[in-house]
Every structure is written in C-alpha cells, then in structure tokens.
Design a protein that fits this description.
The structure holds 2 protein chains of 2 kinds. Chain A has 17 helices and 12 strands. Chain A is α/β, with parallel strands linked by helices. The chains are: A alpha/beta, B alpha/beta.
Chain lengths: ~450, ~400
C-alpha cells in the first residue's frame, strides 16, 4: 500500500503527481510524523512550526522554522495573529515549497497560535501557486476552554476561505472512540492517528486508479465551497459478510455521529477498496445501505482493486453538510460546473472539467490514469465534458442534485419580492448600529435560508 | 426582648421599572444597620412601551397603577414616592475627566476643591437637548497618584477626577416621569436601568475583580462594566426579546403572539439536539395545525442573541475591558431565562458567564431569585444607598445615628 504506481501498463500517459504533506504547528507536526511512520512514497513531508523546541523533536528531515525574526523561536503563544504574522514573514519560502506541486495536504490542530494562524496562510499560498489544497484540522477538546474554541472556529472559517477543501475532526468526538482510562498520550495519539488515517485514505483515494474512478475533482465537488465541516470516516472488514459488516462499522463510527451525519449530509463521497475478489454484488450492497441512510445527498462513489488488500474490504467516506446555502451562492459568482443528470437507477460519477479555471488547469497537469475517459478529458480542459460510469441498480439519488440546484440559483439570483417587514418596530425609531438596521431579523441580514 | 418592644426603625423604599414587557414595582425596607429587604412586589403586563420607552401614556399609566396597587397590597404599605428606572436607545455614556490646580503643591485639599473638580468633570460637550442622568465618580488622582477614593485632607497641588457620565434626551427622559406623576406619585430619582440591575446582582468583590452585567430585556439590552470597584463603562442596545419574537414571527411565518409562546416553550440559545426535529402546533380548537422546524426556530434565535452579544463584545473590546473582567459575565433580565444563554455568552465573550440573582438584597426569595426583577430590586438598593448618604449628611440623621449607637432609642 505504499505507492500509487501499481499498474505499469498506464505508464506512458502518466506524469508523476507531486504531493506534499505539510504539518503546521505542534499538532500538525505530530500528525505528519505519524503519517511518515507508516510509509508514504513519493510524498514529501514538511513540518512548519514557530516553536524551535517542538520542531527539534520531530524526526523528519524537512523542517521549516517560521517567524524566527518575529518570535525568536519561542512559538506563537496561542495567538493566531502571531502565527499568521510568522507565516507571512516566511511567505516567500512557503511559495517556493508550493511551486510546481499538484496537491498539498495541510494538517493542523486549531485553537492554538501556529496551526490556526499560519495554516490558512499556507493554504492561501498553495492555492496561489496553483496547487490543490486540502486541509485536515482538529478542533480542540471542550475542556480547553471557550477561547481556544472560538479561535479554532475562526481559524476554521479562514481555512474554508483559503483551502479547496477542509476536513474537520472535532477532538471532543474522539472521547467516544476511547475508553475512560485512556492516557493523555494515547488520546492525543488517537486523534493524530485519525487525522493521519484521513490523509492516507484520501491520498489513496485520489491517487489510486479504480474501475469506478474517483479523483481529486470528485473530492473537491464534495468538500469545496460548502462552508461546512466535512466528516470523514473509514472502516475495514473481512470475511464472507464483509459488505454488511463494513457498513455497520462505518455507521458506528462516532465521527459520523452514529450515521446522523449521513442523514444530514448533502454530498457524500464513498470510496470502496478491495482485493481482486471484490464482487459487484458487494459494491451494490454497500452502496444500498449507505443510500438508505441519506436523504437526498449528492452521492459520488468510486471503487478500486488493490492486490495487497486480499480479502479485506475498506470503505472511506467523506460526508459534507452545507450550512448556509443561499449566502454561499450569492457570495460565489464563480461559474458552476455543468452537471449531467443521472438517469434513475444509476449511480453517476460525474465531473465537470471546466470548474474553476485553476482547478481545471491543475487537473490538466495531472493526467492520472483513469479508466477510459482519462485521456479525452485531459485534452479538453475548457470543454465542459462529463463522464458517467454506470453501476448496476443502486438505489436512487434525487434526479436534481445539489449542483444543478445551486447552479440555477447562481444564474438567477433570487429576487427579493417580499419586503422585510419590521413588525412591531415599523413605526418606532430604527435601531441603527454601524449603518445596519438591527430591527431587521438577524437571519435575514446574514442571509441564512430557512425552508 | 428590647427588640420586640422597640422594633428596629425602617425606611420604605420603592423601585419602579416601566419595562417593555412588564411594569414592576419592588417595595423594600432599609434597616437601621443598612441591610435591604424586599417586602413586596407588584407586576403588571406593559402595553404602552416599545424599546424601553413610553409610546402610549394612557395605557402605561394604567399598567403602572396596577403594579403599584399590587405592590402596596403585597407589602402592606402606602406608596408615595418611587425610584424610577429609565432606558432607551437615546441614552449615551462617556468617561470624563476634571482637573483642579491649586496655587502650590503643599495645598491641603478641602471639600470646596473637590466640588470644583466635580463641576469641572461635568463640563463636556453634549447636545443641548440632553441632560445628565448620572455622573458617577470613579477615582481621584492627586499629583499623579491614582486610585484615591477621598482626597479631602490630603496634600497636593493638582487634583484630577475621572467620572462616568450617562446622559439622555431630556424630553424622552421626562415621559415616564410624567406618567408616574400623573398618578400622584413622586419620583425621587431617575436611574439608568442597567445600573440598577447591576446593583442588585453584584457584591463588592465582583465589582473589584471586574465584571460585565448584561440585562437582556424585552425591548432593550443594557450592559455595565465594573472594574476596580467602579463603573467603567455602560451601554445600551435597543434590541431585546421582542426582536427575537419578531424574527421568529417573520422567519416561521406566524403571528407574534404565537411566536412569543413558541419562544418561551421551545426556545434555546443553542442549536444542539434540535437538528431535524419538528414541532406540531395545534390550532385553537385542538387540531394539529402546522409543523415548525425546531432547528430553524433555534437558528433564528441564536443568530439574534449571538449578534446582540457580539455587538456588546465589540463595544467593550474597543474600550479594552476584556482583560479586566476577571469575575466574568453576569446575565439578568427575561433573556437570562433562555436555556443555554450562559453557554452562548461564554462562547461570545470568552469569559465565564453566570445567571445573576439579587445577592445584594434580602427578603422575598421570589423577588431576589427572579432575573426579570433585577432592575426593580436594584432600584431599591440604589435608593437605600442614596438615602444612607443623605442621612449621614443631615443633622437629624447624625443625631439619630449617635443616639442609636448610645442605645438611647
């Protein structure tokens, strides 16, 4: 399970995909060390920190000390502003690291100074350099106090704005995975391991070719621009009933809130991976069960064969929930991807190539092997081509997926036909603060949709 | 035995709050030893007030009369005068600075010097239609030595005074006074309602440590910052529970009365646990009528409450008070009854938050435990403090005090 290059037959069209994994701050550093321990080939691991002591403990060759001038190697002291300033001081170096890279994973623990402050800067720099950035972040434990939580939430918002995708793991949920007597060290190593699993899982999912293929654009379709936290879970099972068991394990995962996250999700990415014995019936069974859990989520699936897995079946799932749909759309004038509507009775893997120019360009530079349509696609970046892989008789997803809805809205911004009444305050003196009429309902001013 | 024959002499003080949701009168007695006990409460729904200010004098007069009558009955006293709280978006506050310079440095500060510096501090640029409601001394500074409580008798050439001033539009301050006077009641003093609430809730230790009091009323939200034992900042937002109701009424498309009912029964300041739940409402004749998404209800509420607190947080943050609030945030008013409001406050302010109860006074538990009565009870406390001051100055009071201490009475 170490390399992406498992099928030499496709070598001629393939360009080596450059991936870098960054760990920002103390937590990020630990996660990256953990990932490194399990062996990733072709991936450069880089640790960034403001604290020289913490940095010295990381057993990796590539270490960058941020903000040496600013903080003198003493860390950011839990202040995101200092973390940000430190990263901005070394922005040129970060730019150098990100140039020519296709994909950047950023691991960080939110709530402190470096991860919260410097992380979003790195994400922005990576994006500016044309790399696709995916952030894996943790939120602090509740016991760490509301201030850290607030900083973390703010950091998360910044990450969402800067990175292409954010997968968020609230540490508090890890409590449900461990028993009461777990030591502090083990607890933190569990959260680190979860994050590491996330990076590994997604990396495999994106780089490994499959018979129902998934790649980074599919991933982006699920996580990007959703202004939401994406939940992530992975499960593995063996034996004759593995298809049933793996889903049970998945739904029991506290990170998915006992399956509740699936019900709320409006976009799901499911990746199945099994040995050569993986049967279509099994794929069908897994998808059927997952489908039953979701309401009308946009579902993207992929399946791949991995020799080394033997009779094991692993399922990796990314669930994404949208929080403020309208606000999102109105503030997002970028062209939406075109959508092929899946006919009933099929699961579609559809991807508009002409998404955002940058993304398209990155995909073009990244001709990963994929089943039949790969080459055609790499040639026609500007064209809005989409492919449809068909899997037999999986239960249905709604014929109008979220993307088509979203597109319609973006093209025809909603006309405010209804004037906002101020109810009993209509004839009173308006309450104005910074030019905002506070008598108008907050949720209306914030553009939250309620229906 | 002696106590039974000669009960401790008490003074009755009445606090009247004409609020947006209700009119409340609290009757308190002040014992000779200075303690304050609440002995009676009168309440009435308020119909003529919007955003803390009287908009219908006739209705308000009726409501005030009802509340006063109920208070008289419950405390078994006759009420002749009240301490009246005022609020409203027109109130403004600021910190002023007064200076007095003597001819030489070895000047002994006397009372007239203090009076002069007080007068100086009250001179500031305010609109001509405004009057000063409160001018609260903070600290004297004598020749650069800060934090002096009483400089009389000390030596120094330059006396400075920091003061917190609350002022408002004269005519708008007079409206409730006219209503009360129309009922043949005297108004002893006008008191900013946020100040009154804070007096009811806080003890000296909290004031010394630094605390933010937020009174979440129906029409307005007042806040007061204490640090180093004195009022550092006050503020008011003409946003309150009525806004929450109106938001719900608009967002869930229902009549305000129904929205208010839903708010009280199912409202909370957290979304947690409400995801995906719906409520089935019944119409007047008991049949299921329509369904309401509980998550939407909570989200509308949280958005409004969070915004209100964020505005306060920005304001006190601008003044740099965050680090001085070691006793955290203290919540009162009807809004303090919203489940989870303390958690939301902790999140927004980044400080520990508690629901305030009137610790500073004794008496009826139902009155001191009720966050909605904090202002009325605080007015009694305010009155007690003022009258103690008056008594001490008055000759008769001094004699009485002397006689009392000698045990003649």
């Amino acid at each position: 399970m170490t390399t992406t290059e498992t099928t030499p037959a496709s070598a001629p069209v393939r360009k080596q995909l450059t991936i870098k994994v960054f760990g920002v701050g103390g937590c990020g550093g630990n996660v990256v060390s953990q990932i490194h321990g399990t062996g990733f080939a072709d991936v450069q691991m880089i640790v960034l920190n403001t604290d020289s002591q913490a940095l010295a403990q990381i057993p990796l060759p590539d270490k960058i000390h941020l903000g040496l001038k600013l903080n003198g190697g003493l860390g950011a002291g839990g202040d995101p502003e200092r973390g940000r300033a430190a990263a901005e001081e070394d922005e040129a170096r970060l730019r150098g690291l990100c140039t020519g890279v296709d994909m950047v994973f950023i691991c960080a623990g939110l709530g402190g100074g470096t991860g919260t402050g410097a992380g979003p800067v790195l994400a922005r720099v990576a994006k500016e350099c044309g790399a696709l950035s995916l952030a894996f972040v943790t939120l602090p434990f509740d016991c760490e106090g509301p201030k850290r939580m607030r900083q973390a939430r703010q950091g998360l918002e910044e990450f969402k704005a800067a990175a292409d995708g954010v997968v968020c793991l609230p540490n508090q949920k890890v409590f449900k995975l461990i028993d009461e007597n777990t030591s502090v060290v083990e607890t933190f190593s569990t959260t680190n391991e979860l994050l590491a699993q996330g990076v590994r899982g997604i990396w495999q999912l994106v780089t490994r070719p499959g018979f129902i293929n998934l790649d980074f654009a599919d991933l982006c379709a699920v996580v990007r621009d959703r202004h939401s936290e994406s939940s992530f879970a992975t499960a593995e099972a063996t034996g004759p009933h593995r298809a049933k068991e793996v889903v049970e394990k998945l739904l029991a995962n506290p990170l998915l809130e006992g399956g509740a996250a699936l019900g709320e999700a409006d976009a799901l990415l499911v990746s199945l991976m099994g040995g050569p014995s993986l049967s279509m019936a099994e794929v069908n069974r897994v998808m059927e069960q997952i489908n039953r859990q979701t309401d009308n989520a946009h579902l993207i699936m992929g399946a791949a064969i991995e020799e080394q897995l033997g009779d094991r079946l692993t399922v990796t799932l990314v669930a994404s929930r949208q929080r403020s749909h309208t606000a999102d759309v109105l503030s997002d004038p970028e062209p939406e991807q075109l959508e092929s509507v899946a006919p009933p009775g099929m699961v579609s893997v559809s991807r508009g190539v002409a998404e955002i120019n940058q993304l398209g360009a990155a995909i073009a530079r990244k001709p990963v092997t994929r089943s039949t349509t790969a080459k055609r696609e790499a040639d026609s970046v500007s064209m809005a081509g989409s492919e449809t892989d068909v899997a037999p008789s999986a239960p249905m997803l709604s014929t109008r997926s979220w993307r088509s809805r979203k597109k319609a809205k973006a093209m025809h911004p909603e006309l405010q036909l209804e004037t906002v009444t101020k109810g009993p305050f209509e004839h009173s003196e308006p309450t104005l603060r910074n030019g905002v009429d506070l008598d108008v309902p907050t949720f209306v001013r914030r553009g939250m949709s309620m229906n | 035995m002696l106590n039974l024959l000669f009960p401790e002499k008490t003074t009755v003080i009445v606090g009247l709050e004409i609020g947006t949701a209700k009119v409340a009168a609290a009757v308190g007695e002040v014992t000779e030893s200075g303690g304050v006990n609440v002995i009676g409460i009168g309440q009435s729904a308020s119909r003529g007030v919007r955003k803390g200010e009287v908009v219908n004098a006739d209705l308000t007069a009726e409501d005030v009369r009802n509340a006063i009558v109920e208070a008289e009955r419950s405390a078994d006293v006759e009420i002749a005068s009240v301490y009246l709280s005022v609020t409203g978006g027109h109130l403004t506050s600021l910190n002023t600075h007064g200076v007095f310079t003597a001819a030489s440095d070895d000047h002994e500060i006397s009372q007239p010097d203090v009076n002069e510096v007080l007068a100086n501090a009250k001179v500031f640029n305010r609109p001509s239609e405004n009057t000063v409601l409160h001018a609260i001394r903070q600290h004297f500074t004598l020749n650069g030595q800060a934090g002096i409580a009483d400089p009389v008798g000390m030596l120094g050439g330059k006396l400075e005074l920091d003061m917190h001033v609350v002022h408002g539009v004269t005519t708008r301050l007079q409206n409730p006074v006219r209503v009360v006077k129309g009922l043949n009641l005297e108004v002893e003093e006008l008191v900013f309602s946020g100040l009154a609430s804070s007096l009811a809730l806080l003890d000296n230790e909290q004031k010394q440590m630094g605390v933010l009091v937020v009174d979440l009323g129906a029409g307005t939200t007042e806040y007061v910052v204490y640090a180093d034992g004195v009022i550092k900042h006050t503020g008011i937002l003409a946003v309150g529970g009525d806004h929450v109701t109106n938001d719900l009424s608009y967002g869930l498309r229902m009549a305000p009365a129904r929205a208010a009912m839903l708010k009280q029964e199912h409202g909370a300041a957290t979304i947690g646990g409400a995801a995906g739940q719906t409520l089935t409402l019944t119409s007047e004749n008991g049949f299921p009528d329509r369904r309401v998404n509980l998550e939407h209800l909570r989200r509308i509420m949280v958005a409004r409450l969070e915004e209100t607190m964020q505005l306060i947080d920005e304001d006190i943050g601008e003044q740099g008070f965050h680090d001085q609030l070691r006793a955290g945030v203290c919540l009162c008013g009807g809004g303090a009854r919203i489940p989870g409001i303390d958690k939301l406050a902790e999140e927004v302010f980044g400080l520990s938050a508690t629901l305030g109860r009137a610790n500073a006074v004794g008496g009826l538990r139902s009155a001191t435990d009720d966050p909605e009565l904090a202002t009325a009870v605080g007015l009694v406390k305010y009155g007690a403090i003022r009258q103690k001051g008056l008594r001490r100055i008055g000759l008769v009071g001094k004699l009485k005090h002397l006689a009392g201490s000698l045990g003649i009475f």
